[in-house]
Amino acid sequence: MPSRLLLFLLTALVLSLPASLSSAAHAGAAPLYQRIVSLSPLLTENIFLLGAGDNLVGNTLYCQRPHAAQDIEKVGSVMESSIEKIISLRPDLILASNLTPLAQIAQLERLGFRVETFAQPASFAEICSQFLRLGRLLGLEKQAEMVIEQATDTVRNIQDAVAGLPRQKVFLQVGAHPLFSSVKNSFTHDFIELGGGVNIAEDQRSGAIKVEKVVALDPDVIIIAVMGSELGGVGAEQQQMWNTYSSIRATRSGRVHVVDPDLVCSPSPTTFADTLVTIATLIHPQLAQAKTEKPSALL
Q1: SS3 128
Q2: CA 46 to chain centre
Q3: Domain range spanning residue 200?
Q4: Is 1 within a domain?
Q5: What is the rounded distance in angstroms from the CA atom of residue 200 to the CA atom of residue 170?
Q6: Does 187 share its domain with 134?
């Protein structure tokens, strides 16, 4: 393993450690809004990443990261929240996503609440730009810039680490019933591209894909990131299904992997960088082997 490659990988792993990002986020001014309601798991995570978690008074049932988000008052689901509950929390800012019903946003605005809506990001660049927008909105721009800088450094180091390696064909599965793949106009495609892979579904307009097509495209690696992708449930079921297709290169080489769907499908700048490290090592296992063989390089 070339020493330059090992150095880049280990630097990326060190930069991706959450502790460094967390300390960066807390070094700054207090947020402009004191009572925030978040209607999106990603926005909730980003609020904590900016160091403004103490100002979050309400979020959804699906807001599970970080752990402290689970203890905050719940106002409903991502697509159906209780207007009465939100009103009772007296927020001075409500953060919505493009999954929040437009009628609900309009109702909240008619009641005099400030509602800011964030679209689903389509790339790592958009993840960072939306995070910066949130930082500016909360008066925490410098904290946002620090987080983005560290995440970007990790991504660049991973790109450098895989630059000289043969690109592997990757099927990143993000849905099971129906079968759904990562496509080019999504940030999940960036995991493959930046991690040194080729997305077998990059030419598709839609993520819907047939099992037969995946088999025909013969990916080197299959990465499963669907809801229920823990050690059991849908993820394990899908892994078992792919392992029955012995004609697929990924199956023959034991490279059908299940990863945490929350990290893959709803990333902050920090979790994107951390998850990219994981996915890059699944695409190029020699990166993980290099780290294991020379752990002293982390010191």
Answers
A1: helix
A2: 11
A3: 167-298
A4: no
A5: 6
A6: no
Give the whole-angstrom CA distance, residue 299 versus residue 204: 44
| 21-38 residue pLDDT tens | 343 444 456 678 999 999
CA distance 290 to 233: 32
CA distance 126 to 128: 5
CB neighbourhood size of 69 (10 A): 20
**Which of 282, 281, 283 is CA-nearest to residue 8?**
281
163 φ/ψ angles, rounded to the nearest 5 degrees: -60, -35
Report the alpha-carbon distance of residue 134 to residue 272 in Å, rounded.
17
User: Across the beta sheet with 115-118, what order do the strands follow?
Assistant: 56-58, 36-38, 93-97, 115-118
Look at residue 266 and tell me if it is in a domain.
yes
**Max Cα separation, the chain?**
62
pLDDT digits (tens, 9 = 90+) for 195-213: 999 999 999 989 999 999 9
CATH number where 212 lies:
3.40.50.1980
pLDDT tens string 93-114 = 999 999 999 999 999 999 999 9
Pair (193, 262) in one structural domain: yes
| 35 part of a folded domain | yes
Find, among 222, 158, 223, 224, the residue nearest to 196 by Cα.
Answer: 158
Structural domain total, the chain: 2
Residue 147 covered by a domain: no
Q: Pick the closest to residue 209 from 197, 222, 196 (CA basis).
A: 222
